[in-house]
Amino acid sequence: MSSPSTVRFLTGITTTGTPHLGNYVGAIRPAVQASRRAGTENFYFLADYHALIKCDEPARIQRSTLEIAACWLAAGLDADKVFFYRQSDIPEIPELTWLLTCVTGKGVLNRAHAYKASVDKNTAAGNDPDADVTAGLFMYPVLMAADILMFKAHKIPVGRDQVQHIEMARDMAQSFNHLYGEHFVLPEAAVDESVAMLPGLDGRKMSKSYDNIIPLFAPPAQIRKQIAGIVTDSRAPGEPKEVEGSALFQIYQAFASPQESDALRKAYAEGIAWGDAKQWLFERIDREIAPMRERYEALAGNPAELEKILQHGAEKARARSAPFMAELRHAVGLRNLGTGAGAGKKEKAARAALPVFKQYREADGKFYFRLLDVDGAELMQSAGFESPKEAGQLIAQLKQGDTAALKQVAAWWRSARNPAEVMQAFAEMGN
Ligand code: TRP
């Protein structure tokens, strides 16, 4: 069980490619380090449902899932200490996706970057805006929100490009909580600016889509060959070289200690030959990767063992997701008819978990309002107003925490059953 102060981190890895040095430096290495922090729970999962959005090659998805799983474990992830699972092993995730779909505005999804980029591209090309856009791409942010909200994650370590998705997840959680009570934790993106963005062979960000990657666990001879292909300028051996803008130097820095980086900086200034600098880089990378390679190969060569680890992870994750999904089903009204059917008014007041104002008219012809607590009991009653509009305006101001309005009603709440509770109610409604 997790204590109330536990901070939960969660991140997913889409299973469409082969892990490369950029993934290692930007995601795997920092995540493995972070997973060892005390007072945290860490959820890492293989986002294979997300992979289906981009990839219709079954063999590639299977292969990628195997490689990525082996890679994270080889890099030191302790599957017993963290929650390490495959998204498609958790049936509650697509189930939650539907509940969230029903509280998400279509207009919100229209504005999601990935979908919008496709629409803009189509429009620019004079095509139908939704040409070749699947509903899967459109729903991407909802599936991602289900991943996050299912495990009540607080912090989501992601790259800049994913921040909008986390904000959408937060909005969905808020909408759901507002309608059905406080079930979800509101997640936050955690963008680590100190993590290096690794350049690829051509100097642009290392990315599969630029075809400029160095695979993490390629045989050493292949890595050496690829490093030889990193772009440099044409300065000859003996000529001083610039570290500024040098992809080779930046990659080196991502693996080296500050002292090692200083040594290469000095060598640049002294005119090291590019061939020699590449040899430094190869040796430095190999020193970090070689010990993991053996474990990677052992795991990748034993898919049954990997499958066992993932099944164990799924079991751990489902111990959380299954009871939580039962709670959510109940909250929205997907219920066993044999127990407590037809809940009444009280539930309606309690589910929003906030006090409410109720307006009404009395026999004197004036308009009044009452403040009710979450159980529907009266906390305070107003004096009479000539019109419902006046009463309504004052309520709106109170909800916003307007000081003048609060002063105006102070006389009423001091005579209320429990003045402290009234003030507390105003404070809750104001945030
Ligand atoms: N969309 C993420 C990416 O492409 C992968 C992902 C899926 C994810 N579900 C997630 C990341 C939940 C964080 C949390 O990188």
Secondary structure layout plus pairing:
Blueprint: E1 7-14, H1 21-34, E2 40-47, H2 48-54, H3 58-74, E3 83-86, H4 92-101, H5 106-110, H6 113-124, H7 135-150, E4 155-157, H8 163-180, E5 188-190, H9 220-228, H10 247-255, H11 258-269, H12 274-300, H13 303-332, H14 345-351, E6 356-361, E7 367-372, E8 378-381, H15 388-399, H16 403-414, H17 419-430
Parallel strand pairs: 1-2, 2-3, 4-5
Antiparallel strand pairs: 6-7, 7-8
How does this model look, in words?
The chain is mainly α and 431 residues long. It has three domains: 7-196 and 302-332, HUPs (Rossmann fold, 3-Layer(aba) Sandwich); 217-291, Tyrosyl-Transfer RNA Synthetase; 354-426, Double Stranded RNA Binding Domain, CATH 3.30.160.160. 53% of the residues lie in helices and 10% in strands. It has 17 helices and eight strands. It has helices at 21-34, 48-54, 58-74, 92-101, 106-110, 113-124, 135-150, 163-180, 220-228, 247-255, 258-269, 274-300, 303-332, 345-351, 388-399, 403-414, 419-430; strands at residues 7-14, 40-47, 83-86, 155-157, 188-190, 356-361, 367-372, 378-381. The strands form three sheets. A three-stranded parallel β-sheet has the order 1-2-3. Strands 6-7-8 form a three-stranded antiparallel β-sheet. A hairpin with a 5-residue loop joins strand 6 (356-361) and strand 7. Helix 4 packs parallel to helix 13, helix 9 runs antiparallel to helix 12 and helix 10 crosses helix 12 (274-300). The longest helix has 30 residues, at 303-332. It is elongated. Tryptophan is lined by residues 10-12, 14, 47, 50, 144, 147-148, 156, 158, 162. Tryptophan binds next to strand 1 and helix 7.
